[in-house]
Amino acid sequence: MKFVDSATIHVSAGNGGHGCISFRREKFIPKGGPDGGDGGDGGNVWIISDLNMNSLTDYRIKKIFCAENGKNGSNANSSGKKGKDVLIRVPLGTRILNVDTNTIVADIQDKNQKILIAKGGWHGLGNSRFKSSTNQSPRKNTKGSLGEYKIILLELILIADVGTLGLPNSGKSTLTSSLSNAKTKIDYYPFSTLNPILGTVKIKKRKFIIADIPGIIKGASSGVGLGIKFLKHLSRCRLLLHIVDTTTIKKKNINKIIFIILKELKNFDELLSKIPRWLIFNKIDILTKKKINKIMMYMTKKIQNNQKYYFISAKNNIGTKKLSKDIIKYLYKK
């Protein structure tokens, strides 16, 4: 099923029911008073979080949501029935924007979070409401007001503690599946990951959620490749793991390879580039010890600002256990 992380929908709350003009008519009571009842309120449109959803696929086709109108009042002071509400279910991490005002209405991040997105119209008043000492037989009522209508943009931004990023074939998916319960597609060709994947890592009583997004290539911020489309899903992360394929680097191009990703992050969102980022040098099982030592010596001299880095093999689980423990320590000390 295609992963959908944005959708535009139209929501209409119900109109309020009209008040009734009626007079009491009973046998032997020729001059009964007013008994017109009020109308019912229009139904509301709500957005509620749903833990069982992980995409906005449901809204690829269904885009119009209308709550029920309130019923009109009737005689015998009978009020009209309130219109039924409409519930729109969305996954955690969904941001709601009003398209007309370009403002953020809400950010769904909590279990069972419920947001009123369009309020139903107010009920009209029946003529019994207008009876007074000077007007015993009012022929006045009010109409129900219109319900709100809005065009809403639903934008899913995955909730993850840790995000992975790197060039295609750097081993992001292998690392994600090695650390967590995520079932990612792993292959030897670039862009085997086409959609973001979430996995949960548990160590004793502590856990974190890790996100795997498609690989980023040079020029991604200008529309090249797939990764830039999903970079927004890293914006909620507290830590980024920058995966580097050690088999593709040489002593003189290490910084160049690292800088490609950093540049794309800055071009996409300056704030995203400021999230703490650890360098993860992957596939050391393929390298000789001599080459690993050369890279480590180079990194020790060149890396500044206390940049944290690891040498691992995600495929053979070399160094991944320590990485997981360090991530837990980092996240839980915050």
UniProtKB/TrEMBL annotation:
Domain Obg: from-to ranges: 1-159
Family, as annotated: Belongs to the TRAFAC class OBG-HflX-like GTPase superfamily. OBG GTPase family.
Subcellular location as annotated: Cytoplasm
GO molecular function ontology, one term from the record: GTPase activity
Superkingdom, taxonomy of origin: Bacteria
Name the record gives this protein: GTPase Obg
Residues at which GTP binds: 166-173, 191-195, 212-215, 282-285, 313-315
Quaternary structure (record): Monomer.
HAMAP family linked to this entry: GTPase_Obg
One Gene Ontology cellular component annotation held by this UniProt entry: cytoplasm
Binding site for Mg(2+): 173, 193
Pfam families: GTP1_OBG, MMR_HSR1
Keyword Cell inner membrane part of the UniProt annotation: no
An example Gene Ontology biological process: ribosome biogenesis
Enzyme Commission code(s) on record: 3.6.5.-
Gene name in the database record: obgE
Domain OBG-type G: 160-332
Keyword terms: Cytoplasm, GTP-binding, Hydrolase, Magnesium, Metal-binding, Nucleotide-binding
Functional summary from the UniProt entry: An essential GTPase which binds GTP, GDP and possibly (p)ppGpp with moderate affinity, with high nucleotide exchange rates and a fairly low GTP hydrolysis rate. Plays a role in control of the cell cycle, stress response, ribosome biogenesis and in those bacteria that undergo differentiation, in morphogenesis control.
Cofactor: Mg(2+)
